[in-house]
Amino acid sequence: MSIVITIFESKDKLMLRTHTCGELTIHDINIHVTLSGWVHRTRDHGTIVFIDLKDRYGITQLVIDYSDHPELKPTVDIIHSEYVIQGIGIVRKRLEGTENSNITTGFIEVELVKVNILNTSKTPPFPINQIGGEELIRLKYRYLDLRSNRMLKIMELRHHTIKFIRDWMNAQGFWEIETPMLMKSTPEGARDYLVPSRVHPGEFYALPQSPQQLKQLLMVAGIDRYFQIARCMRDEDLRADRQPEFTQLDVEMSFVEQEDVLQTIEDLMTALVPAVTPHKRIRSPFPRMTYHESVERYGSDKPDLRYGLELVNVGDLVKDSQFNVFTAALTKGGKVQTIRLPGCASYTRKQIDELQEVAKIGGAKGMAWMAIEANGTVRSPIAKFFTPEQLQALQSAADADPGDLLVFVADKPAVVAASLDKVRREMGKRLKLVDKDEIVFGWVVDFPMFEWNEESQSWDAMHHPFCMVNPEDVEKLLHNDLEGVRAASYDLVANGYELASGSIRIHDREIQQRIFDRLPYSPEEIQQRFGHMLDAFEYGAPPHGGIAPGVDRLIMILADTDNIRDVIAFPKTQKAEDVMMNAPSAIDDVLLNDVHLSINKSIKSSKE
RNA sequence: GGGCCUGUGGUGUAGCGGCCUAACAUGUCGCCCUGUCACGGCGAAGAUCGGGGGUUCGAAUCCCCUCAGGCCCGCCA
Fold first, then answer.
1. A417 and A451: one domain?
2. Which of A391, A412, A433 is the last residue of a domain?
3. Which nucleotide is nearest to A94 (CA to C1')?
4. For FRET with A421, which of A13, A170, A391, A405 sits at 20 to 30 Å CA-CA?
5. ipTM passes above 0.90
6. Distance, angstroms, CA A126 to C1' B13?
């Protein structure tokens, strides 16, 4: 994305800079300029010295010629990398043959008549523009890492993305409304970050896990179309794509059905991607599949749709085989699925063992395999348990050709899915099936309304308790057939990430009550936790629904990184620590007293 | 709470039972150099190998514990 930025009103006034370091070209020859920036690199040739001066906009070469300006030597001699300096001089065309076509300013240089040191710098603890290396040291000096070309580019992309979203949402009639950061704790869902109240001893605010309830109340208020670039906090363990605080594009719309919400977000993404990352390709329209179909075909509710490697259910084909592992799993209500790995029949025992370890991460106890040799014969430790007809049927079902490897997992459906999902993702990488310049979005719809919680032996709302039931399944709800009840909820997935999640909400008090009846809450609990919502719904709640795309994950995909820390200016480590500021940290007893807290003496700070 | 991986001068790596009195690159410091752009040349300083314990005649190297970071499972309406 190229944009014109006018920063300087007058080039004649005395100022710290007249141009940026990425601005001067062959058209500026012979003008007097003042540049300020950081010293990227110096090249000292004794009588002539080159300084690459950098800022956010680019790099410009400064030249100091001691034969013309010997008085500059004492200053230039003490200049080092990352010093902040100001160079005053004249733009010159570079000598024939010394141009640098790698940078836009490479055909000019600034011949200095004066140089000022605006600030010195210690030697950086790591090479700023060299990528890779120990991340911890970069996080500790995050402001230096951010100074790198790579990070500045990502921050720029993030800015453009959010700016585009704001403009686009505005053009579609959405209002951006801020909601409180100090909210009420609602015990279901993620663990809350808590803020003790000084005024109300023993009571706490919670930081929002999302503005979910508030955006619904805004619909009751008649805002009609709302969005917010909202910060959300969840006190749960981190992952490569999860931070304790993250940013959502929170959206809610009134008088809409599922289709309206999906189309809105699909339109946004379809406009956004080419605008901020022209080199990325997307597929339109976004494919849709049910949750059930997604898990059946990919083993996941957030499949990477850039490649196939689909799961094939072969339960029917193996149920009469002599292989006890398969038949026992089927008897116990489990399933047997396979993935065809093209061209992998030559895999060594070691490679297969590695893949088996990958499957085990998903919970599988083992992974069976069959290699279809080039001549068509089957090489497999389990081949002896199958008749030739069964072997043939398996190959046909999996569409296997000579040279392919089939891997099987048999277990409970959830274990088979999780295990083969891991195998599929691993092989997508190994077989280089992903094109990093392609983004394949997809909609996963018809999520189950309820989820059985083994721990509490009760049914939980899978999305949240205000999520609308699929109208076709209201009967099942009434008959307490909760497992089959589908929700009017949907996820946007992209390249294997869950990018957004949303639903149509219940605006009917009656249905809402029926949902609560099925959840393990007493009427008192419901009133205490959700009373404000239920009250509001009695004052003319319009039909409404919404969605919340994760901004950080979106930018991860746009920026070609697989780590969420890369797209957040000041992220936290996996233990949710800010190693730059050293947060969290112990606090003074006086402050604790103010909020009526005392620390359990048996607890030691992790930093002592 | 659990599993796996990583930890060697400032930084990035090599070394993986004795050739290690720990190597290389880069950075840093000093001297030289008029056209470089990862400038070049000469020279110097800099790590007891995350920490502790053990095995061994001998440990950066093997074992145990521990700390830190990362990835994953659980968790994340």
1. no
2. A433
3. B35
4. A391
5. yes
6. 14
For residues A226 and A261, what is the distance between their CA atoms, to the nearest angstrom?
Answer: 12
Quick one: tokens of A525? 């609990």
Residue A583 CB lies within 7 Å of the nucleic strand B? no
Assess whether A61 (CB) lies less than 7 A from strand B: yes
Closest among A556, A1, A493, A496 to A266, alpha carbons compared: A493
Two tokens, residue A317 = 């084909």
Residue A598, amino acid: S
- Both A326 and A263 in one domain: the answer is no
CA A105 → C1' B77, Å? Answer: 53
Of A residues 149-178, those with CB within 7 angstroms of nucleic strand B are none
**Structure token pair of residue A216:** 């619904």
Which letter, b or e, does each residue of A385-400 get, where b requires 16 or more Cβ atoms within 10 Å of its Cβ?
bbeeebbebbbebbeb
Model confidence pLDDT, tens digit, residues A150-178: 999 999 999 999 999 999 999 999 999 99
Contact, A606 CB vs strand B, < 7 Å: yes
Count of domains for chain A? 3
Q: Are residues A277 and A334 in the same domain?
A: no
Domain of residue A548 covers: 152-288+442-589
Domain assignment present for residue A143? The answer is no
- A516 in a structural domain: yes
Cis peptide before A584 (omega within 30 of 0): yes
- A75 in contact with nucleic chain B (CB within 7 A): no
Instruction: With respect to residue A607, please indicate whether it lies within any of the assigned structural domains.
Output: no
**Which segment of A132-136, A137-141, A343-347, A385-389 scores lowest on mean pLDDT?**
A132-136
**Residue whose token pair is 């799961």:** A311
Q: What is the mean pLDDT of chain A?
A: 92
- If asked whether residues A312 and A276 sit together in one domain, one would say no
Q: What is the CATH number of the domain that holds A225?
A: 3.30.930.10
Q: Which of A94, A119, A144 is the last residue of a domain?
A: A119
- Considering the domain architecture, whether residues A458 and A584 belong to the same structural domain is answered as yes
Whether A185 and A66 share a structural domain: no
Same domain, A451 and A426: no
For helices A413-430 and A291-298, the axis angle rounded to 10 degrees is 60
Note the pLDDT of residue A516: 83
Shared-domain flag, residues A204 and A311: no
Question: For residue A439, what is the enclosing H or E element?
Answer: strand A438-439
| Both tokens assigned to A513 | 């009550």
Q: Which residue has the tokens 């309206």?
A: A260
Nucleotides in B strand less than 7 A from protein CB = 1, 10-13, 26-29, 32-40, 68-77
Asked whether residue A67's C-beta has any atom of DNA/RNA strand B within 7 A, the reply is yes
Q: Residue A486 pLDDT > 80, yes or no?
A: yes
Q: Residues A111, A114, A116, A121: what is their CA dihedral angle, to the nearest 10 degrees?
A: 30
Q: What is the mean pLDDT of residues A219-237?
A: 97
Name A551's Cβ contacts closer than 8 Å, sequence gap at least 6: A161, A162, A165, A229, A246, A247, A248, A249
**Which amino acid is it at A283?**
R
